[in-house]
């Protein structure tokens, strides 16, 4: 047996009758990373530039990472510079966002068109503390719609002069600006309230 050297690492060679057998336990099994090409470096810098233009990374972050990209020794270091960048939305995500925007715009247009056409319900400005709404004849505001309970809800004046809207256990619920009440809620002029399917726009003045 004798020892030879290759690339600075010793290789033990065993002479046998039929062949020469090398002991490679002392040879390095890892190779140095491939040097980054100019094209890979440019792609990383372009990725950083796009994110900076989109406002996803700050100017200081962009400048610092471009400097690191220019000094990167291999592809792995370039990959690390862009690994944590926010991902661009996919085509499906962009399509979903576009549909959501159109839907939201349509909803706003419909609300703007419908709002002036809602019947007004004026908040009482007299000394009454309760204003009961329902289908029963004893209510202050009688609504004959079948979605309205006999005693549906009430408007109650608080000590500070503000009004609270309270559902009285109605079947179809009372809503304030589209949200179904689960407890007392303060209301003001300009709010939209509904008792079952009957919708109103609150205003100041004598009740209609």
Automatic annotation (TrEMBL):
<dbReference type="InterPro" id="IPR050923">
    <property type="entry name" value="Cell_Proc_Reg/RNA_Proc"/>
</dbReference>
<dbReference type="InterPro" id="IPR012551">
    <property type="entry name" value="DUF1707_SHOCT-like"/>
</dbReference>
<dbReference type="InterPro" id="IPR008984">
    <property type="entry name" value="SMAD_FHA_dom_sf"/>
</dbReference>
<feature type="domain" description="FHA">
    <location>
        <begin position="131"/>
        <end position="181"/>
    </location>
</feature>
<protein>
    <recommendedName>
        <fullName>FHA domain-containing protein</fullName>
    </recommendedName>
</protein>
<dbReference type="Pfam" id="PF00498">
    <property type="entry name" value="FHA"/>
</dbReference>
<keyword id="KW-0597">Phosphoprotein</keyword>
<dbReference type="InterPro" id="IPR000253">
    <property type="entry name" value="FHA_dom"/>
</dbReference>
<dbReference type="Pfam" id="PF08044">
    <property type="entry name" value="DUF1707"/>
</dbReference>
């Amino acid at each position: 047996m004798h020892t030879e050297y290759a690339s600075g690492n010793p290789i033990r060679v065993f002479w046998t009758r039929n062949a020469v057998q090398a002991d490679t336990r002392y040879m390095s099994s890892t190779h140095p990373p491939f040097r980054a090409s100019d094209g890979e470096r440019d792609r990383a810098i372009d990725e950083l530039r796009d994110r900076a233009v989109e406002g996803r990374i700050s100017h200081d972050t962009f400048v610092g990472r471009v400097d690191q990209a220019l000094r990167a020794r291999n592809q792995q270091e370039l990959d690390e510079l862009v690994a944590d960048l926010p991902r661009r939305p996919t085509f499906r995500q962009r399509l979903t966002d576009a549909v959501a925007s159109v839907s939201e715009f349509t909803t706003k247009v419909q609300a703007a068109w419908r709002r002036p056409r809602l019947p007004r319900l004026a908040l009482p400005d007299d000394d009454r503390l309760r204003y009961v709404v329902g289908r029963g004849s004893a209510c202050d505001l009688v609504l004959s719609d079948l979605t309205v309970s006999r005693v549906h809800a009430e408007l109650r004046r608080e000590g500070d002069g503000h009004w609270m809207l309270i559902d009285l256990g109605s079947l179809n619920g009372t809503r304030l600006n589209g949200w179904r009440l689960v407890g007392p809620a303060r209301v003001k002029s300009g709010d939209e309230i509904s008792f079952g399917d009957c919708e109103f726009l609150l205003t100041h003045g004598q009740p209609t």
